[in-house]
Write a structure and sequence with these properties.
- There is one protein chain.
- The chain has 4 helices and 2 strands.
- The chain has 101 residues and is mainly alpha-helical.
Length: 101
């Protein structure tokens, strides 16, 4: 799963040496939106199953975006496109495995 072509784009556009973020011209941070949503629900101990606790989720999201902007960066959230039919079986199997645990 993931953003198609992202790994190749990163390998072409980003050199392998480490650079201090403060020295970069580009001030954008790319974020996997669904992964980030999962991260927020887990780290904030939000119950996504029975209603989502959307006001607490929104507060956590605003806090995060504000802190990123405060240090001079702009977060850019990427959402996956439609699910590739070839990956449907894998997604279904993973969902079954999660349901069993």
């Amino acid at each position: 799963m993931g953003v198609k072509g992202l790994k190749r784009w990163v390998s072409v556009k980003c050199n392998s040496r480490r650079t201090l973020l403060s020295k970069r011209k580009e001030k954008f941070i790319a974020i996997d939106a669904l992964g980030f949503m999962y991260f927020l629900y887990k780290t904030e101990s939000l119950d996504w199953l029975y209603g989502g606790q959307f006001s607490r989720f929104e507060a956590a999201l605003v806090r995060y975006i504000t802190s990123v902007r405060k240090v001079g960066f702009e977060p850019v959230f990427f959402f996956d496109g439609k699910r590739d039919e070839n990956k449907w079986e894998t997604s279904l199997q993973r969902a079954k495995e999660r349901a069993e645990t």
